[in-house]
Automatic annotation (TrEMBL):
Listed EC numbers: 6.3.3.2
Domain of life: Bacteria
Catalytic reactions on record: (6S)-5-formyl-5,6,7,8-tetrahydrofolate + ATP = (6R)-5,10-methenyltetrahydrofolate + ADP + phosphate
Keywords linked to the UniProt accession: ATP-binding, Ligase, Magnesium, Metal-binding, Nucleotide-binding
Database matches in InterPro entries: FTHF_cligase, FTHF_cligase-like_sf, NagB/RpiA_transferase-like
Entry annotated with the keyword Lipid biosynthesis: no
Names of the cofactor(s): Mg(2+)
Keyword Metal-binding belongs to the record: yes
Source species of the chain: Flagellimonas aurea
Family: Belongs to the 5-formyltetrahydrofolate cyclo-ligase family.
EC category name: ligase
A single GO molecular function term of this UniProt record: 5-formyltetrahydrofolate cyclo-ligase activity
Name this polypeptide is given: 5-formyltetrahydrofolate cyclo-ligase
Length: 187
């Protein structure tokens, strides 16, 4: 299936999920993440959810990470298709971007080479670990700057797309895992 077809399909599927159901699924997803052997790292990059797009709510996962004394790093868009990473602290001020993404106003920058785990936003993924995002290339660019051994973990309300994504590009970065409320996929 083509990326643009999957974007449309999964945006529609997410729109059908009620806020209460999305909250329950996000909590189940955070609990499922405990099954992955990722807890020995120091810096964990995680996206902050866009409420209007009914994304996975990452707050339960952030709470879990902070409860395990992990350093949580969140992105801020700068320039064209570029992310900077900031340490999320109790005093980090957040402001919504033009896309509705909560971003740090300022703070302590964390370089890509320090990050051990990246929780990646997505709309869909297939059984080979290929993912479909919103199509702007922010995360592919960011992930290509990270160390090769950095773990890439997708978060999805839905199971893997049964049909492989057919229009993968050489700069697309595959996932190592994808966590859903029902299952953890390993690639």
């Amino acid at each position: 299936m083509l990326k643009h077809e999957l974007r449309k399909k999964y945006k529609n599927l997410r729109a059908e999920i009620s806020p209460t159901k999305a909250s329950d699924l996000s909590l189940s997803l955070a609990n499922s993440s405990l099954q992955i052997p990722i807890w020995d790292f120091f810096y964990y990059h995680i996206f902050l959810s866009i409420e209007d797009k009914n994304e996975v709510d990452t707050l339960p996962l952030i709470t879990l990470l902070q409860g395990k004394d992990k350093n949580v790093v969140v992105p801020k868009v700068i320039g064209r298709n570029t992310l900077e990473n900031y340490l999320l602290t109790d005093t980090t001020a957040l402001k919504k971007s033009a896309w509705g993404v909560p971003e740090p106003v300022e703070g302590i920058k964390v370089p890509e080479n320090k990050i051990g785990v990246v929780f990646v936003p997505l709309l869909a993924f297939d059984a080979m670990g290929n993912r479909v995002g919103y199509g702007k290339g922010f995360y592919d660019g960011f992930l290509n700057k990270c160390r090769k051994e950095t773990l890439k973990i997708g978060l999805s309300f839905f199971a893997a797309e049964p049909e492989l994504i057919s229009d993968i590009h050489e700069n697309d970065v595959k996932l190592d895992y994808c966590v859903t409320p029902e299952k953890v996929y390993t690639f």
